[in-house]
Write a structure and sequence with these properties.
Blueprint (H helix, E strand, L loop, with lengths): L2 H15 L14 E3 L16 E3 L2 E3 L3 E3 L7 H17 L2 E3 L4 H5 L17 E7 H6 L2 H11 L3 E6 L1 H6 L10 H11 L4 E5 L6 H10 L3 E3 L8 H6 L4 H9 L7 H11 L3 E5 L5 H10 L3 E4 L1 H32 L5 H5 L3 E3 L1 H10 L5 E2 L2
Parallel strand pairs: 4-5, 4-11, 5-6, 6-7, 7-8, 8-9, 9-10, 10-11
Antiparallel strand pairs: 1-12, 2-3, 12-13
Helix pairs in contact: 2-13, 8-11, 11-15, 12-13
């Protein structure tokens, strides 16, 4: 088994069963209080959870977020989850397509369009790899999987813990600017568990990037994932940075304040209420990765469907209880920001601390 194929297999094992979540730091979504409306004047069955992203209409603002590819197990997982996304009107994200470049025999693990002909599908490539490729080569990767947009993932913390990880992160801004201008599909700047700061949001906006996936701290720590695979020396370094990152809630607020057009709130989303809070902070949709994979592995397709169905119902309940008949109304719903999240936003400049009832 090649190094990259083994890494993909390790990632699947660790994210499914390993102790790789943040231990101290949270998403800080618990610091967002949505204000109850005892007279909502709404009908639960008539709530509108639909949203249009990249020309595709979703029935609910849920992304089955990027997880895997490049391994024989990944093919089954990707096809199953993509078919669920198609059936339920959700978005689906592929894992890093790097393996398609180095191990052509793994390409089938990314080809899910037969299972999801109409779903919003997001491709995925690392910024360092994208920097080394011509736009034409990247466009071919996007076309081969039929992606509607490309996530360019930013993962310096994760790479620094890997024994053979990337160490040169120059030309990232230049690469994003090139792809925005030349690729022909929307480009999504995506973190991998450490979140996005106000400064990054402003720099992305200045480049012409309009879409982000915050992948904030509080869910899976990809530093923790790599600690489990690292040599003793890199493992010690990784432990120091295991809790590193900007919480998901703060990242969403920062990106909304920076004026990003599409904001995926991933990183520790565990419930429909979490999704509702993220949307109230400015997110376009919520991304859920590890819990979906765990539900699939524990209960098969039925388990994953049940989990996602619960997420959707919880979101709808939150909407009714704040008197929001649509996602646009939910973004304007009263909410109060408390505790550490209020500190993040007041000190670094996010959204206003509260909106009154």
């Amino acid at each position: 088994m090649s190094d990259i194929t083994q890494r993909k297999a390790d990632h699947l094992d660790l994210t499914t069963r390993g102790d790789v979540g943040f231990r101290k730091n949270s998403t800080l979504l618990e610091c967002v209080e949505l204000v109850h409306d005892a007279l909502p004047e709404l009908s639960f069955p008539e709530l509108d959870t639909g949203v249009e992203l990249f020309g595709k209409k979703l029935k609910a603002p849920i992304l089955i977020a990027a997880m895997t590819g490049g391994h024989e197990r990944a093919e089954r997982i990707n096809r199953e989850l993509a078919s669920i996304a198609e059936e339920r009107g959700l978005a689906f994200g592929l894992g890093s397509q790097r393996a398609m470049l180095t191990r052509p025999q793994t390409r089938a693990s990314y080809k899910i369009r037969s299972e999801a002909p109409n779903a919003l599908v997001l491709g995925n490539l690392g910024i360092v790899q994208a920097s080394a490729l011509a736009t034409r080569e990247i466009a071919e990767l996007v076309a081969e999987v039929g992606a509607d947009a490309l996530c360019v993932h930013l993962n310096p913390a994760m790479e620094l813990v890997q024994d053979d990880g990337d160490r040169d992160f120059r030309r990232g801004l230049e690469t994003l600017a090139r792809l925005v201008n030349e690729l022909g599909v929307p480009v999504i700047a995506k973190e991998t568990g450490c979140g996005l700061s106000p400064s990054v949001g402003r720099r992305l906006r200045a480049l012409g990037v309009r879409h982000v996936d915050v992948s904030g701290a509080g869910g899976t720590s990809w530093v923790a994932v790599e600690i489990e695979r690292a040599s003793p020396r890199r493992r010690e370094l990784g432990q120091t940075f295991r809790e590193w990152g900007i919480p998901t809630a703060a990242s969403v607020a920062f990106m909304a304040s920076a004026g990003l057009e599409t904001i995926f709130a991933t990183g520790g989303i565990q419930s429909g209420l979490d999704a509702a809070k993220a949307i109230a902070l400015g997110a376009s949709a919520a991304g859920i990765a590890r819990p979906t994979l765990q539900a699939l592995e524990a209960g098969g397709r039925a388990g994953a469907v049940e989990f996602l169905s619960r997420i959707e119902e919880e979101l709808r309940m939150a909407m009714l209880l704040v008197g929001a008949g649509s996602l646009c109304a939910l973004r304007e719903a009263p909410r109060v920001v408390l505790g550490p999240l209020k500190d993040w936003l007041s000190q670094l400049g996010g959204l206003s601390a509260s909106r009154g009832p």
